[in-house]
């Protein structure tokens, strides 16, 4: 036993000395000629030759294309090699281009190494720039044995993309006249209130408005002029200001039982580029009854009920079932880019039965053949029926929000998407074809949000509403306290305290470049969804629009306040729009305008009750309202927060291309700034994109989520913090500098909490606010662009006092350091940040 | 070299509610007194963090300087007028109004330095909401409605009534807990 141990120990001892000996030889340089030891035969390392090549030599600035740069070495050697790269020419590294590696490393026996080069956008007009990438002579211990071969360099050219900075004139913008006319009427007279807005950023000079009325002979064909008023003076209107003119029409001059159109036109002032624009005109219409009074009550058409039960236009409703159909347009969409409600359609349930949905809009045709079945008797309200209102509509009925304008009722088109009856042999089916439908013509009165949005228990009883559809917007980004209070009341008190659900259209301003256009607008949009203060209230579900190929609809406003997206479509001519209900009859409704599409198809729409060109986020929102009604029928105890949570948790990425599918960074001055972010996955696992919110609503997934055990009211109590404010003391925002300013704020909120919404308040001043981009980064590192650079919402403004909502951080912990970044991306105008503040709505999610 | 400027602020528990309320009231009171003191020519009323100064052609026969240094005046062009405010070389203006028509009540916000039109609606909180009709009659209001859930009532004034004067009157009425003018909201439109 002992002998065995000793032998084992000796073995270890010998091995130890052998290892030490080898180490000593190595450390003293044994084997080299200057080691001082016995001379040995040394084989010098094999020299290697490096060559460089690439597949593409002509690049375009900011094109997002990556090119590969290849370096090859010969011969193959059994040791590590490094090859350095040098850069010459007018293009500067990290200003005009960026490259992943400046030294390429080769492992033993590796003969090719690759690096990637990208051009950078700098928004400077600089012409084509040259770039030579050259293999460097070995000059370090690792590259000493490398010599350049042939070719030893590659020459590239970077073509300027002509994305110049905005000039002073472009930044200041132009005048932009927009006309919106509101009619009120008595027995004898129509009063037109002509609201002329200058949406531009400079003052518009004096101009003239005119009013012309014609009889409608048949859809699309006008008869003789009945009345013409051509001398209404419109004085100069300052930027973002309004002038209201008024004129009257004498109803005695109009024959009974006829429909008339009113064209209101304002001559564009010289400052406005009026080419191809139509905002400077407005069209209205009215129908006179047999007594020569304007039709203002819904009278059901005298028609026999169809024998069939199938909805004849259902096959064209791609938002519900997209099979690539064209829906009366030239091209079809992409199959399955829809609401994904095949299970609901197959089983026929849920249908929204018992759920009260209000369309808060211009009106509602309560006797429409495809809507009447779901309209709640006496539940709707006409704000223009009050005789105490100086601008009431003669003979209007309080419970009939009939829209007297014969050229289309926006509310009726919205209502069909939600609530058109199913399987009745007529037209279409709504997403929730058995809801209880209410209409409040809030937009016709421009008043009384308490009544329309849930604060009233009588005339109308809006407290009984479960879902409010708000397919409207405002021109105001200024925070509105009454709106906030009413919607907060609705979410905390209605539905037995579970909270009403407010579904709000995001806006249609993505392509509304009224003042200037810049390439970045193709990614960020001309005006963001933050241009409407209602969208920055955390209580609403703000909805973006998708087209039939699953891409963002061309007009759909983007912003961090979006919650989800839904189908709506394009314009119904080249690409599908939404098919929905219209004011019934050929002489009334959008169909009377004789647009291409269903309006010309008398076999599928024999009476002119439907419309195939409806789009806008106005069309997207009611799809979501319908889905919410399905969820509330499925589980009546869902809170408003549950509904938002389910939609966010089950939304899917739309299948259409998002171009570009990468962040967009631009060199401003000498620093890179990020102005657009691709899909992000936040720290709570939610995917978010400013174009889509959490993605497209997926009905079957949402209902499965419920049926798979989601417990209502399981998100914990919601808390709202006070404002946490950072005083920036007039901190200068560096002009034309991608570094911008960064400030941090530490929030020490309870552990285990989850963000449900966060609002940023920024205050400051700047000579031109469109220069600024505003980004917020959470403690988890999630970044959200709250204000995209060159946002037209801010055109012509100099005072920053803005509350911006971001949903990007949903579910993350609010604890830790938040970072605000503000970058001024254009040269010439300067400004300061006075203060900024955050407040957080949070819960405790399981 | 980055020119980033970073500062850090750390927030723990907010101030106690009573202290915050007291500080806010004190600050608002001082601010209101200052503004009122230097712009006596114009009727004024506190409203959501700022003071609203009533402007009219009559009140601005001569330019008026506000406490914050903004100079308010009237511009004329034929039968049109508009109000303007100049503050540190920045000019803000109201829209043009035809003097041949009724001009709605216009105010200048001392904090946002913008002109606003006032709505003909007044928001009131009554000690006894059931007395709303009586108060509406006394004011010759067009109509009135109580919103029990929201805890306030709305009075619709006649177009020729002065909302600021009416609110001042109501604020001295012991039946009224709170009375507020309402700014006319921006145009809403279908999307």
**Number of distinct beta strands of chain B:** 14
Average the pLDDT over all residues of chain A and give the rounded result.
90
Strand content of chain A: 25-35%
The proportion of strand residues of chain B reads 35-45%
What does the main sheet of chain A amount to?
Answer: 6 strands, parallel
Write the layout of secondary structure elements.
The complex is a heterodimer of chains A (846) and B (191).
Chain A: H1 2-27, E1 48-54, E2 58-60, E3 66-74, E4 81-88, E5 97-99, E6 103-106, E7 112-119, E8 129-135, E9 146-148, E10 153-159, H2 168-172, E11 177-185, E12 189-198, E13 207-218, E14 221-234, E15 241-250, E16 259-266, E17 281-287, H3 342-347, E18 356-360, H4 410-419, E19 436-440, H5 442-445, H6 449-452, E20 467-470, E21 472-474, H7 481-493, E22 501-505, H8 521-524, E23 540-546, E24 564-567, E25 578-581, E26 610-614, H9 617-634, H10 640-650, E27 664-668, E28 671-676, E29 680-681, E30 687-688, H11 699-707, E31 719-720, E32 724-733, E33 737-747, E34 754-766, E35 772-777, E36 783-787, E37 799-806, E38 816-824, E39 831-843
Parallel strand pairs in A: 1-9, 2-10, 18-19, 18-20, 20-22, 22-23, 23-24
Antiparallel strand pairs in A: 1-3, 3-7, 4-6, 4-8, 5-7, 8-10, 11-12, 12-15, 13-14, 13-16, 16-17, 25-26, 27-28, 29-30, 31-39, 32-39, 33-38, 34-37, 34-39, 35-36, 35-38
Helix pairs in contact in A: 4-9, 9-11, 10-11
Chain B: E1 8-11, H1 17-38, E2 44-47, E3 50-55, E4 64-65, E5 71-77, E6 80-87, E7 90-93, E8 97-98, E9 106-109, E10 115-126, H2 132-139, E11 143-147, E12 152-156, H3 163-171, E13 176-183, E14 188-190
Antiparallel strand pairs in B: 2-3, 3-9, 4-5, 5-6, 6-7, 6-8, 9-10, 10-12, 10-13, 11-12
């Amino acid at each position: 036993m002992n002998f065995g141990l000793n032998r084992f120990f000796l073995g270890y001892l010998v091995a130890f000395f052998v290892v030490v000996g080898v180490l000593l030889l190595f450390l003293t340089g044994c084997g080299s000629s200057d080691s001082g030891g016995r001379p040995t035969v040394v084989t010098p390392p094999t020299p290697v030759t490096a060559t460089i090549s690439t597949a593409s030599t002509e690049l375009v600035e900011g094109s997002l294309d990556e090119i590969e740069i290849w370096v090859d070495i010969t011969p193959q050697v059994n040791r590590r090699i490094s090859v350095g790269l040098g850069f010459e020419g007018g293009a500067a590294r990290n200003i005009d281009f960026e490259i992943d590696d400046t030294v390429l490393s080769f492992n033993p026996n590796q003969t090719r190494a690759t690096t990637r080069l990208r051009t950078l956008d700098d928004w400077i007009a600089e012409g084509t720039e040259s770039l030579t990438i050259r293999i460097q002579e070995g000059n370090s211990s690792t590259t000493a044995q490398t010599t350049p071969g042939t070719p030893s360099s590659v020459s590239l050219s970077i073509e300027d993309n002509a994305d110049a900075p905005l000039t002073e004139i472009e930044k200041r913008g132009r005048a932009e006249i927009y006309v919106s006319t509101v009619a009120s009427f008595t027995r004898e007279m129509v009063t037109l209130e002509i609201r002329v807005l200058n949406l531009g950023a400079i003052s518009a000079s004096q101009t003239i408005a005119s009013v012309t009325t014609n009889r409608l002979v048949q859809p699309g064909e006008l008869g003789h002029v009945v009345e013409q008023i051509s001398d209404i003076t419109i004085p100069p209107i300052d930027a973002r200001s309004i002038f209201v003119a008024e004129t009257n029409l004498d109803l005695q001059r109009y024959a009974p039982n006829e429909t008339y159109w009113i064209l209101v036109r304002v001559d564009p002032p010289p400052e406005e580029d009026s080419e191809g624009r139509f905002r400077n005109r407005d069209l209205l219409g009215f129908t006179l009854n047999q007594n020569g009074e304007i039709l203002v009550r819904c009278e059901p058409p005298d028609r026999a009920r169809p024998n069939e039960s199938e909805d004849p236009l259902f096959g064209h409703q791609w938002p519900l079932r997209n099979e690539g159909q064209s829906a009366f347009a030239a091209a079809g969409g992409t199959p399955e880019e829809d609401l994904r409600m095949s299970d609901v359609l197959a089983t026929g349930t849920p249908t929204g039965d018992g759920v009260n949905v209000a369309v808060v809009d211009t009106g509602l045709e309560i006797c429409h053949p495809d809507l009447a079945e779901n309209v709640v008797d006496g539940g709707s309200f006409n704000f223009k029926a009050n005789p105490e209102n100086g601008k009431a509509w003669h003979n209007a009925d309080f419970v009939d929000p009939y829209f007297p304008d014969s050229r289309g009722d926006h509310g009726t088109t919205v209502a069909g998407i939600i609530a058109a009856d199913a399987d009745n042999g007529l037209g279409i089916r709504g997403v929730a074809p058995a809801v209880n439908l209410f209409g409040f013509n809030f937009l016709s009165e421009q008043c009384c949000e308490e009544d329309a949005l849930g604060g009233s228990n009588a005339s109308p009883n809006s407290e009984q509403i479960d879902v409010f559809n708000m397919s409207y917007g405002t021109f105001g980004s200024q925070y509105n306290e009454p709106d906030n209070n009413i919607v907060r009341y609705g979410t905390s008190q209605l539905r037995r305290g579970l909270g009403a659900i407010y579904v709000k259209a995001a806006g249609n301003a993505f392509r509304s470049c009224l003042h200037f256009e810049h390439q970045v607008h193709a990614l960020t949009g001309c005006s963001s969804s933050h241009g409407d203060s209602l969208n920055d209230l955390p209580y609403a579900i703000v909805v973006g629009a998708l087209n039939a190929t699953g891409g963002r609809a061309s007009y759909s406003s983007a912003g961090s306040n979006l919650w989800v997206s839904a189908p709506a479509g394009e314009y119904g001519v080249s690409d599908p729009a939404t098919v929905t209900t219209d004011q019934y009859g050929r002489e009334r409704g959008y169909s009377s305008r004789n647009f291409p599409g269903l309006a010309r198809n008398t076999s599928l729409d024999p009476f002119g009750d439907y419309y195939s060109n409806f789009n806008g986020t106005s069309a997207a929102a009611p799809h979501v309202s319908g889905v919410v009604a399905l969820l509330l029928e499925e589980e009546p105890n869902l809170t408003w927060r549950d509904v938002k949570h389910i939609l966010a948790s089950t939304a899917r990425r739309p299948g259409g291309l998002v171009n570009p599918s990468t962040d967009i960074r631009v060199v401003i001055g000498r620093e890179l700034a990020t102005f657009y972010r691709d899909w992000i996955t936040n720290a709570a696992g939610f995917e978010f994109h400013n174009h889509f919110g959490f993605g497209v609503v997926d009905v079957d997934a949402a209902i499965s989520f419920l049926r798979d055990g989601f417990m209502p009211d399981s998100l914990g109590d919601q808390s709202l913090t006070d404002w946490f404010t950072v005083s920036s003391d007039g901190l200068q925002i560096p002009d034309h500098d991608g570094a911008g300013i960064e400030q941090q704020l530490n929030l020490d909120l309870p552990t285990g909490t989850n963000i449900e919404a966060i609002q940023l308040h920024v205050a400051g001043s700047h000579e031109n606010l469109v220069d600024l981009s505003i980004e917020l980064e959470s403690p988890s590192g999630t970044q959200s662009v709250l204000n995209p650079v060159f946002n037209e919402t801010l055109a012509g403004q100099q005072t920053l006092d803005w509350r911006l909502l971001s949903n990007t951080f949903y579910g993350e912990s609010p604890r830790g350091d938040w970072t605000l970044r503000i970058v001024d991306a254009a040269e010439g105008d300067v400004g300061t940040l006075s203060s900024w503040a955050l407040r957080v709505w949070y819960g405790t999610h399981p | 070299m980055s020119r980033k400027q970073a500062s850090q602020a750390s927030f723990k528990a907010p101030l106690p509610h009573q202290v915050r309320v007291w500080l806010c009231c004190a600050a608002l009171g001082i601010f209101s007194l200052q503004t009122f003191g230097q712009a006596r020519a114009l009727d004024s009323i506190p409203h959501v963090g700022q003071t609203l100064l009533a402007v009219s052609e009559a009140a601005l026969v001569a330019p008026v300087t506000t406490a914050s240094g903004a100079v308010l005046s009237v511009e004329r062009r034929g039968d049109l007028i508009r109000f303007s405010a100049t503050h540190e070389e920045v000019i803000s203006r109201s829209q043009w109004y035809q003097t041949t028509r009724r001009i709605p009540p216009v105010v200048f916000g001392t904090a946002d330095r913008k002109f606003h039109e006032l709505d003909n609606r007044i928001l009131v909180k009554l000690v006894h909401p059931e007395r709303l009709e009586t108060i509406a009659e006394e004011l010759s209001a067009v109509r009135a409605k109580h919103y029990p859930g929201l805890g306030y009532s709305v009075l619709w004034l006649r177009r020729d009534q002065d909302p600021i004067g009416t609110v001042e009157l109501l604020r001295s009425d012991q039946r009224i807990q709170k009375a507020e003018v309402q700014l006319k909201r921006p145009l809403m439109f279908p999307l």
